[in-house]
Amino acid sequence: MKDTLVLKTIQEKIKNLGSLPGCYLWKNQMGQVIYVGKALKLQSRVRSYLNPNQKDRKTRALFVELYDLDWIATRTEKEALLLEATLIKKYNPKFNVRLKDDKKYPFLCVSTSEDYPMVILTRKVKDNGDRYFGPFTDVKAARDTLELIHRIFPIRKTKLKLPLPKPQRPCLNFHMGRCLGPCQGNITKETYSELVEEILRFLEGKKERLVADLKSAMVSASAKMEYERAGFLKQRIEKINQLREKQTVVSLDGGDEDILGISRRDDEGQIVILEVRGGRLEGKKSFPLSGLSFSDDEEAFTSFLRDYYLNVTLLPSIVFLPISAKGNYDVFLEAILEKFGTSIKLKFPEMGPKKSLLRLAEKNADLSLTERILATKLRDQTVAMKELQEKLNLPTLPRTIECYDISHFQGSSPVASGVMFVEGKPYKSGYRHYKMRGYEGINDPGMIHEVIARRLSHLVNEEEPLPDLIVIDGGLTQLSRAAEAANALDLGHIPMVGLAKKREEIYFPGEKHPYSFDIHSPMMRLLRNLRDEAHRFGVTFQRLQRKKKALKSILDDIPDIGASRRKSILTYFQSKKKVTDATRSELEKVQGIGPVLAEKIYTNIQNLKKIEPK
């Protein structure tokens, strides 16, 4: 039961609140803020928390921990809404839904406060007359958009205070047609402003209008015989149309809409926004949430809409939300209207095309949440190693793990690869390649036996430390042969497992039946990373061996071509095709090859090509 003295102390505080709007802050016994809320009437709202028989699960859980109360009165409920967002960011209370990432998201800035604006990436939004677009949840997406603008629009990219007192020579971007060269002083501010307006419309999503205006300008330029300008405009139209062709049409009425979906697991969640501009699906933004354990979808979306849309630079006309989020958003919409001079419509479709898009947004949110949870686990590789030790019953934490794979092309040029992970991460100095000595053709188990015997013999002879775990890319047969090699050297105590590709199952030496584990677990992700890295490393080496063998065979039977000249030829041409296609004059360019020898090599290669199978 809640301490009676604590309740009486809080009740005495509540008597002083009155019916003012504002924010209240519940604190625990440690003085930490555990919940921030807003209310139109502080006194009645705060008093409601003191009933121990609450139906709401969140309020019951909060009641157990609350110990003290603080508050801040405001003039209106709208001011309380804005203050609530600030306080949640400041205190990060455990019972509030909040954006997990409190970092500043990047924006694209068009520096319209300058005579000759640029487009730059920034994390600071200033009230200085510039235009900002964002926020972008993915820095790479912001950089990709910036690069796309620079490819389509010949705007300046060098930071200069223009106009310059004295015109300077243009940079390479001007000569490549990727900048109009305002640093030269030969382009008017009005002409440059037209380009900036095009960029603004592009970033606003008004691409259809932009294309129409560009076509009109192109026709006008052609009529005036300004063919160079018309050509530039045509190129921009083509690039924009190429981009629009990749974007899916999801709304025939051509509106600007946001489709929101949510996924949640325990305290963690993810909200995804599908951005529809001009009727086309243009992008996706994903936001991590926390504090969802005791919150329903309505509270989650109420918090998100406040934190996101009161900080954007462009509003959609409509925001579509799942029916589970339906509630009272009047204060939020009032704040939007005051800030932007226009409002947005919130809709909760229960059927039809928009309902399908909501399901798509929810699916994307679920995928993003899964990826984030897995990435979080994998960042701490100790978790994966501890799982390996526990699940595989290893004597020690597997800090050093080696994995081996066999690669060949239809039995030819067989090689083995060994990779080493230390503390769960690739350790490139421990990577090894092996050319097979005792086996030819297709005999993966035999080759595994050979490479494990060679590796362990080397470690013993050189008195180097043994690995904590050896992983064999393969099933029971390959693992059995590897274990034989270890036992022959009295090293059977080294832990060893086989990882089968087909079902991601793990085999243990001496056991016929494999074991299955959660394929999404950190342990299995680490084992798959090992196996895939060993395969990649082996295939790369095997292809190199085949390439060298093919190049060598062309020159082996030509008279007067020894090892030194053969090496010079292979180094110069680098590929079999370039050698076989080389002319006499190209062969003469190789060091140590004169006209007579070049003729001899050329003739031999041509004769060889005649008898080679097609």
TrEMBL record:
HAMAP family: UvrC (MF_00203). Interacts with UvrB in an incision complex. Gene3D superfamilies: 5' to 3' exonuclease, C-terminal subdomain (1.10.150.20), GIY-YIG endonuclease (3.40.1440.10), UvrC, RNAse H endonuclease domain (3.30.420.340). Residues 259-482 form the UvrC family homology region profile domain. Keywords: Cytoplasm, DNA damage, DNA excision, DNA repair, Excision nuclease, SOS response. GO terms for cellular component: cytoplasm; excinuclease repair complex. Residues 19-97 form the GIY-YIG domain. The gene is uvrC. One of its GO terms (molecular function) is DNA binding. InterPro entries: GIY-YIG_endonuc, GIY-YIG_endonuc_sf, GIY-YIG_UvrC_Cho, Hlx-hairpin-Hlx_DNA-bd_motif, RuvA_2-like, UVR_dom, UVR_dom_sf, UvrABC_protein_C. This is UvrABC system protein C.
